Amino acid sequence: MDNTQNNVRVMKESKKRIRVDFEGKTPWLERMKKKVFSVYFLKNVVWYIFRLILMIGISYVILFPFFSKIAGSFMSPSDFVDPTVNIIPKNFTLNIYKAIAVENRYFEAFLNTTLLSLVVAILQTFVTCLIGYGLAKFKFKGNTLLFALVIFTMIVPHQTLKLSMWAHFRRFDLGGVQALGIPGLFKFVTGIFNGGFANGFTPNAMDTFVPLIVLSICGLGFKNGLYIFMMRQFFRGVPDELEESAYVDGSNTFRTFFQIILPLSVPMMITIFLFSFSWQWTDDFYTKVFFLNNDVWLMPNIWENIPPSLEMSGGYAAKELYETAIENTAGIMIIMPLVVVYLFCQKYLVQGIERSGLVG
Amino acid sequence: MKFLNTVKEKVSALFQTVKTGTVNLFQTVKARFTGGKVPSEGGALAVPAKKKRPASLDKKKAREGWFFVLPFVAGFVLIYLPIILDSICYSFFQLDLVTGSVQWKGLAFYNAALLEDSQFVQKLVAGIQQLVVDTPMILIFSLFVAIILNQRMVGRAAFRAIFFVPVILSTGLMEAINAADILSTQMGNADGGISTGATGGASEIVSAMDIEKLFQGIKIGSGLVEYVAGAVNNIFNIVNRSGVQMLIFLGGLQGISPSIYEASSIEGATAWETFWKITFPMISPMILVNAVYTIIDSFTSDSNIVMSYIAQTYETGKELSTAMSWIYFLVIIAIIGLIFLLLRSFIFYQKRD
Fold it and tell me: Whole-model pTM?
């Protein structure tokens, strides 16, 4: 002990770092031997390698379908009969992309879907934030009942409501409300209540954004139960003292919400926005219920039919495969904008969940 | 008739009380304004008038709370409830959508779904069986991956980004496209000879063919090979379906205070002990949440056998399909309730100071 203490040399490397050198230090080789040949170290190394391989493997499982879809989208029909072609196309072509963009009106679908998804996602984010805050921070009679109802809306399979949703929004009078006449408003209310069994004509809301917007405003849209649940858990993790100090300083509930709580919950809101935007973007169910006549050209429409110029004659050997490749290309084109959005938002995704302190 | 009479009596009694109440109230108010005394024969309300106090903070907050949940309450009462009620009605009535005529059918559709339809019950049982197999697998897998993603490692951010890709991209339409993809790959294989590598979808990745080839040399029974191949094909499915669960587990793991781990490592706990004595109890509320979420998610997703059968029935018999989905809903509720009761006793809640 004395020996080492006496021979300590402190050397200054730079302004902020120093290096301590001992005279009687074991040589580097010795130290590495001790380190490397210990069971502890070996165990760590094995675990490290195993973990890395596993992660890379699962990443491959996740990403390969996308790669294969992309590869297939550049192939020309002759590549599908060629046994030597596996993943890299021999006759590189952009025909499938061109045909889908032009004949299946990709850009129209893109604009419509962007508009719809943006409106729905913003509304849902804000509304579920409000509802989640209300459920988490206020103790009023029926709070637990309301929360149970939220869970209930989550559990009911949407297939159950398909017919009656269609019937309701088919007779949903919004023309009257737009004209701001009292009879119109009356019709609006009766229209909601009469629903499926109503006779007589009232303007319908089919093939418009109205049903989805109305559902979003009420927090009843696709998977909104989950969003409300997540928001509620998040706000339960926010300490009450924060609001109390705001109240003491003379801020009322709504100002506190907008100036203190909302800025806090931005990562969570981005998470919810990302979910609702992308789930609306690729939504299949509501689009089929509410946009029956294809008047509004949306993303599912570009997938459902094969562009006429790419139509193969029945006898062609790889017809099935080629058509699948066309469908896959449509899929790639559908999710391309989402990939961009995801790249921007993904770091908030984990952050939002991390900060939520979700506790059941 | 007896019933009606009693109702009438009740209503008139109620009316009477309301009437006397309003009279009393009116007199009280009048008295307060005129400064006179309240007539003592007024009854219950004839006590000296109290000063009106402002609502307490709790009451005020409770009232303000309603504003926040108002959209949901309004939407639920005005839109969702009528839709639900209509949907229940549809399963009891025969509708003619063109003329709008309605005919009472009683339990006929439920009868048809449960007794006459040859496939519904069978598919329901198959769906539940699949759930029993899949749910633990999804839970274990997502917990495992969440724990690994929570550790420090090279490229953690990139792995996280990749693992949550299915949550964002593989839903709805993409799910349908992927499903079609697998189908066509299998068709291609059955035809034989045609190269399917590039168009391959999910099953192509670690394709069942490869594994079968691998096992051919070892000469193990074909049943086992099929089982392994099925499990490997299922991995894609499981990875794709466990995104949200991973997020929830990751959030839970982040919430565990590092000082607990530090203390246990100082006491000499091994990694195995640390997992079972600390991580597992602390994460148990999340396991319940995830179990319920997984069940809901897999039951209501379009790729579910029963859901797709119901959707298929919808095209031909809308009322029958609605009746089926209500039966289905009851089954879901029962299973979730059962799981909830089973798991609830194992949950450990950390008390917060």
Answer: 0.76
